[in-house]
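for ur thesis appendix - Glycosyltransferase BC10. copy paste whatever u need, i formatted it the way the template wanted (i think)
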Amino acid sequence: MTMTKKSPPIPARHVLRFSWKLVVILSITLCVLALFKLHSQPDLYSSPSSLSIARSRISRHGNNFSGDPKIAFLFLARRSLPLDFLWGSFFENADMPNFSIYIHSAPGFSFDESTTRSHFFYGRQLTNSIQVGWGESSMIEAERLLFAAALEDPANQRFVLLSDSCVPLYNFSYIYNYLMASPRSFVDSFLDVKEGRYNPKMSPNIPKQKWRKGSQWIALVRSHAEVLVDDEAVLPAFRKFCKRRPPLDARKGKLNIKLQKQHNCIPDEHYVQTLLTMSEREDELERRTLTYTLWNNSATKTESKGWHPMTFTHANAAPQKIKEIKEINHVYYETEYRTEWCRVNSTYVPCFLFARKFSQGAAMRLLSEGVVGQFDTSSLLDPPP
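the 3d part is after this line
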């Protein structure tokens, strides 16, 4: 009979040492995984301290302000303002107590005599700006920072969001009277039933029946600007579930067809509209934008619909074209079978006060040909019958 030699027992201290090593390794592994998960998730609270600090400085007495009301012009810029010379001329003909200027630009960029041709923009950049990506929630983060900064001044009673390629179609007096005559905000807002941008995962925080779409370029009264800045319910859902699909990449070939079937959502085309609808403010809106955009409707095999804004150049920014834009008096919304006739205090008015996207050459033509002329706006301030 063969005897099997037993292995000597492992000392207890070795078992204890091995157990401690295993615990340490597992702890380190879990920490690494947690950090990886944290960084891989969307930033649900991008720049919270900046907005919180700005929100704390907001004057809550602005709705009872009794002095001369101001329009806050809020420029959302990539970096500089390429059309500053045109806006400089616009503000030269305005009364200084009637407007204020705020610019969200790239972090660290300053507006001074070396970066802008108009003194109106000196030092008007936000100091708490963030890096913005097109089609990302950072776009609406930047908008909120602009509105929060402007709300600190109780004299600001109207808030107009503009891109760095926007131009005014009228002089300051006309735009001022037009905005001040209306107690409503101007927010392009309509039912989104075609493109499927609504993510069912948003429910029940954002019900589908409250989902809206519209132009990013809005003009708000003060109470609605406060709703925008105070929101802590709708924005987190947008950060998490409203994301654009990956852009087309020629290197991916046929894979693009599959990628383009992914859920697609552009936050800045839905956020304010949906927020104000959920806040039961939709009846307080003129549901149209004041900023004209000329859209190029094109389609490819990998894009079910590709809409891109046309750029106005020196060649196509002729006075006749600008005149045609100014003569537009209604907008048709096919998803609601709704025609929005443009009125202020029961007075029919042109639909658009601004237009985009304009090149520097186009802006120079507007100035040289005196397209932005004088208009009588006294009738807009008459009370409705």
